[in-house]
Amino acid sequence: MERVPILKIGDILLVSIQVDMSDQTAVALQEDLAERIVATGCHGVIIDITALDIVDSFVGRMLSTIASISRVLDAETVVVGMRPAVAITLVELGLSLNGIRTALNVERGMELIAAERADQGDDEFDYGPDTELTASP
Amino acid sequence: MTSGVDLGRPQTQAVGSDEDVVRVRQLVRTVAVAAKLSLVDQTKVVTAASELARNTLVYGGGGSVEVSTVDNGRKQGIKILFADSGPGIADLNLALTDGYTTGGGLGLGLSGARRLVDEFDIQTAPGQGTRITITKWSR
Ligand SMILES: Nc1ncnc2c1ncn2[C@@H]1O[C@H](COP(=O)(O)OP(=O)(O)O)[C@@H](O)[C@H]1O
Ligand SMILES: [Mg+2]
User: Fold this and answer.
1) What is the pLDDT of residues B121-133, one digit of tens each?
2) Domains located in chain A, CATH noted
3) Are B44 and A86 an interchain contact pair (Cβ–Cβ within 8 Å)?
4) C-beta separation of B91 from B27 below 8 A
5) A101-112 per-position pLDDT tens digit
6) I need a labelling partner for A92 at 20 to 30 A (CA). Which of A129, B20, B44, B97 fits?
7) From ligand 1's centre to the CA of B100, what distance in Å?
8) How far apart are CA A28 and CA B60, in angstroms?
9) Which of A52, A74, A79 is nearest to A63 (CA)?
10) What pLDDT sits at residue A98?
11) Helix/strand/coil percentages in chain A, nearest 5
12) Contact between chains at A57 and B51 (C-beta distance less than 8 A)
């Protein structure tokens, strides 16, 4: 069985799917990624599907599952490079890809993850409007 | 019903493993290009074929896929037959409902594939296996 390689770039795991994956290969990728997130402590996962000429319900479900697993493991997943014909077909197939963040390309995906992480960092010091200090007159 | 005469010899792919499902996708892509389908229509028919071939494998216990080009005098198209001798489908309306699955899938294979093609014909009965024929025409 073929395996999809996972690259580590800084704080991000990059998966560039270059083959027409069998279902077994897709399931293995899901498991490999979960292990790598834990082993590396990375906070971002980018899945580049530029080379995929179709996304069917099996691969669609794999993408959703990866997004859910990484969220539980404190990592953000962004799917990048979806072809227009693939997007059109996904909608007609009825796949909603709920909970999946997408970006145009790897660079934008990295920006999105960085922005997400920065926001979350702010949240730790955000005590909400009730506790906000107001300037005295 | 699918009309038109076949062009060239139909190509057959056995479906006995998930590697065979990959081969079905590749064969369908090649024939869809030969039938001059647009890129979006190629994508739709390959996606439909992937769903149906996976069903042939998972629920039908394996079977075969036959791919041919068709021509109705005005346009070309691709016709694909998925056949298995598995348990068949008892309640077809239910099986064609979005989200219905007996196998822990998303339940979008049959219903979604039907939306993605121009013609969708299914023959099935309990104990009689399942035969699905789809056609996608060039525009
Ligand atoms: N070739 C087949 N033989 C027997 N049952 C089938 C076949 N194809 C589909 N089915 C039945 O129809 C249901 C819906 O199929 P589908 O829409 O592809 O969803 P999923 O594959 O996610 O279960 C399947 O769960 C199965 O019960
Ligand atoms: Mg299915």
Assistant:
1) 999 999 999 999 9
2) 6-123 (3.30.750.24)
3) no
4) no
5) 999 999 999 999
6) B20
7) 8
8) 24
9) A79
10) 79
11) 45, 15, 35
12) yes
| Closest C-alpha residue for ligand 1 atom 23 | B101
Model confidence over B63-88: pLDDT tens digits? 999 999 999 999 999 999 999 999 99
Which residue among A54, A89, A94 sits closest to B98, beta carbon to beta carbon? A94
Residue with tokens 């971002």: A44
Contact assessment for residue B53 and residue B20, using Cβ atoms and an 8 Å cutoff: yes
**Which pTM does this prediction carry?**
0.92
In the DSSP assignment, the letter for residue A129 is: G
Q: Which tokens belong to B8?
A: 């060239």
Mean pLDDT score of chain B: 94
The CATH number fitting domain B11-137, selected from 2.10.109.10, 3.30.565.10, 1.10.3720.10, 1.10.4030.10: 3.30.565.10
| Ligand 1 and B106: CB distance under 6 A | yes
Question: Per the structure block, which two tokens stand in for A99?
Answer: 């909970």
What is the rounded distance in angstroms from the CA atom of residue A97 to the CA atom of residue A90? 9
Q: Where are the domains of chain B?
A: 11-137
